[in-house]
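User: Reviewer 2 asked us to show a designed sequence for the structure in our supplementary figure. I'm pasting the structure tokens here. Could you produce the per-position amino acids so we can include them in the response letter?
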């Protein structure tokens, strides 16, 4: 069985001292446990408007959506009467098949972003085979 050497004891003490100094410089917030990301809240308000000449609507799904509201958390968005497949992220932001890599805060913003991205082209329904 080996005994602890003076060199090893000094190394452990120096490492512990530098860790304490780093925490002291970072402040009390660094040592506190981080809060979890806020959970997605209730569905946003319904909307119905004409944006850049396109009719966009959004509201709670009533079982008639493409996926029964599974990914959208029970919320449906349409562009000119055609469903825009939407998904709600764990942090409460929203994405769609058209605007997948740029999450936005609300389905209304998502519908507007889809209209801009479509540039006048019709929305083609998502079909899963």
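Assistant: Here is a per-position design you can include in the supplement:
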């Amino acid at each position: 069985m080996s005994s602890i050497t003076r060199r090893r004891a000094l190394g452990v003490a120096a490492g512990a001292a530098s860790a304490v100094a780093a925490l002291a410089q970072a402040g009390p917030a660094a040592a506190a446990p981080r809060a979890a990301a806020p959970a997605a809240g209730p569905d946003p308000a319904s909307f119905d408007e004409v944006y850049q000449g396109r009719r966009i609507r959004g509201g709670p799904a009533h079982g008639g959506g493409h996926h029964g509201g599974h990914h959208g958390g029970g919320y449906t968005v349409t562009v000119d009467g055609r469903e825009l497949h939407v998904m709600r992220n764990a942090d409460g932001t929203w994405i769609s098949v058209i605007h997948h890599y740029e999450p936005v805060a609300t389905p209304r913003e998502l519908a507007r972003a889809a209209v801009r991205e479509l540039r006048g082209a019709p929305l083609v329904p998502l079909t899963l085979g």
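For the response letter, you might also mention the following. The longest strand covers residues 54-60. The helical segments are 6-26, 28-31, 107-118.
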